[in-house]
Amino acid sequence: MKPSAFNYAKPSSVDEVLGLLSEYGDEATILAGGQSLVPTMNMRLSAPSLVIDINGLAELSGISSNGESLRIGALTRHVEIENSSEIAEHAPLITMAMPSIAHPAIRNRGTMGGSIAMADPAAEMPACLCALGAEIEITGGSGARKVAATDFFKGLYDTDLGGDEIITAIEIPKISAGYCSAFDELARRHGDYAMCGAAAHAKVDGLVISDLRLVFFAVGGTPVVAAAVGSAMADQTVDEISIAAAQHAVEDDLSPFDDLQCSATLRMHYAKELTKRILNTLVAG
Amino acid sequence: MTTVIEQIQISATVNGEKVTRLIEPRLSLVDFLRNELELTGTHVGCEHGVCGACTVRVNGEIVRGCLMLAVQAGGTEIMTIEGESDGGEIADLQKAFHERNAAQCGFCTPGLIMTTTELLKTNPDPNRAEIREYLSGNYCRCTGYEAIVDAIETVATERKGG
């Protein structure tokens, strides 16, 4: 057995989860899909004394549509999101990104809420939610609150989630008429951690792009909104000149790092290449 | 602080047979299958979800046996390589792997067969790129994958009658 010993609780309500979190504090951890948590426990990077398994909370699972937005329960598994026609229609960026999340056996277990709570800098969903202007619904002892995805990710594996709170859902505004999304990432092997990735959402009219929200991941501690690229591409026709300007603007948006996978210089090169691919994809319809 | 770890009794259906055991919460599903039930066809590789050697089926879906706790599998139906093999539904895959020498040391083979079963269920006519992409979560350190992709392609062609 790899993890250190822990006790196991399987609550039947969110209130029961909150009770356990307030009782055990930092000693407790929430188990959703377990695809990130269990590796950290197996490597003993994490050694909770209580594992709170939320897989019995059916109310946290599922996709629903309320008027202008989609609501994805925190426990909804990647495979369900990947195969959802509702998501494909109203939030196609999420559908595009899903196949890049690890492998089928992982997507059968991994959850949206778990991916967000883990906040891995190379994860796809945090970047997509930032690009789409999604909100994270968090429930704690004093009730539920909503946080914009762009405010939720605070730093490396660090989020706005309090120790006595749980993510209950994600709300994504439905795609508006005239808008398109694009997603791409560069990894050494399909399903591996990205060396650089990008999620984008923009208004597209022919070859003209406006309201571009380009978000990079695996280039810093959190998803990085490329504001300078957004400004550079405001009401611009996508052509060689504007693409070059956008690639130049990437240097203002990113300060990539060296790691075992690649150097900062290579990461910047990848980010510029992805910018070009993303812009071309957006206007290709 | 000394924490008393409480053991938990779980019941599950493994390869069609009901089993009940008293286990520690930290026991992974793959260790449960191998050590408690002596179903050693499912292998333990990296133990952090990367290599795919521990792939088993829970309620019909493939999962990493090292990333699911045994206690979470209570009440589920689990299928391992032993169950799939005894049931005969993968006989053609086993034959194709054998004939094409797609199993060299054999360590990755059970996981690869489990993943392939799911691939051919969801996409009965995959091209080579789709096969490679689907198997990207299963490491093989012997074959270079070429023989594995060949074997799967052969079975997919045979199954559709060609």
List keywords for this structure.
heterodimer, A: 285 residues, alpha+beta, Uridine Diphospho-n-acetylenolpyruvylglucosamine Reductase, domain 2, Uridine Diphospho-n-acetylenolpyruvylglucosamine Reductase, domain 3, 3 domains, five-stranded antiparallel beta sheet, 12 helices, B: 162 residues, Ubiquitin-like (UB roll), DNA polymerase, domain 1, 2 domains, five-stranded mixed beta sheet, elongated
Structural commentary:
The complex is a heterodimer of chains A (285) and B (162). Chain A is an alpha+beta fold and 285 residues long. Chain A folds into three domains: 47 residues, Uridine Diphospho-n-acetylenolpyruvylglucosamine Reductase, domain 2 (2-Layer Sandwich), CATH 3.30.43; 111 residues, Uridine Diphospho-n-acetylenolpyruvylglucosamine Reductase, domain 3; 99 residues, 2-Layer Sandwich (Enolase-like, domain 1). In chain A, 34% of the residues lie in helices and 27% in strands. In chain B, a hairpin with a 2-residue loop joins strand 3 and strand 4. Chain B has six helices and five strands. With 162 residues, chain B is of the alpha+beta class. In chain B, strands 2-1-5-3-4 form a five-stranded mixed beta sheet, sandwiched between helices. At the A-B interface, helix 2 and helix 6 of A face strand 4, helix 4 and helix 5 of B.
